[in-house]
Specification:
This protein is mainly β. The protein has helices spanning 5-8, 90-99, 104-110; strands at 2-3, 17-25, 31-40, 52-70, 81-86, 116-124, 138-156. Strands 1, 2, 3, 4, 5, 6 and 7 form a seven-stranded mixed β-sheet that branches. The longest helix is centred in the middle third of the chain and has 10 residues, at 90-99.
């Protein structure tokens, strides 16, 4: 089994935005998670270009075992990505999968090909709401049999302005 981060770790998600999160319960224990990301195409643009292109990344986890979302302030940019972290609790997830093979979900997964695994946490620009004393926003996903594809590309009508 490979760590799927190898397939997407060269992407720079900063300034991208999570457009949708769809969770589907399928046959028996199939828990499929699809995340659409409006990807700010850093690799495909140049600083002096008049127009920038953005792409839509479709990230699919066929067997989702972890989904955690914190959006403490829905009035702000709830799903704009600031940074990403890979492999959070990676060893613990793999160990738990092996330790709990006899339990329902992991026993069911044993009959499925487990080709790859991903644990990925996006920190969002959704800053903590002091009223509720919560940490900054994030979306943390983990699971098996991950894939991704580019499903759309669009051109923005304005030049990118660099920070600093």
């Amino acid at each position: 089994m490979i760590n799927y981060k190898q397939e997407i770790e060269d992407l720079y998600f900063h300034d991208s935005s999570i457009e949708s999160i769809q969770f589907e319960e399928g046959d028996l224990f199939d828990r499929k998670l699809t995340v659409l990301i409006d990807y700010y195409n850093w690799e495909g643009n140049s600083e002096d270009a008049e127009n920038w292109t953005a792409k839509t990344l479709k990230l699919v986890i066929c067997h989702c075992v972890h989904l955690q979302i914190n959006a403490p302030n829905l009035m702000e940019d709830t799903f704009e990505i600031m940074s990403e972290e890979y492999d959070l609790e990676y060893d613990a997830f793999i160990k738990k999968a092996l330790d709990e093979q006899s339990k329902s979900y992991f026993n069911y997964l044993r009959s499925k090909p487990l080709e790859n695994f991903l644990s990925l946490k996006f920190t969002t620009r959704n800053f903590a709401n002091s009223l509720f004393n919560e940490p900054a926003g994030f979306i943390w996903i983990a699971g098996f049999n991950v894939s991704h594809e580019w499903i759309d590309e669009k051109t923005t009508g304005k030049k990118h302005i660099t920070a600093g």
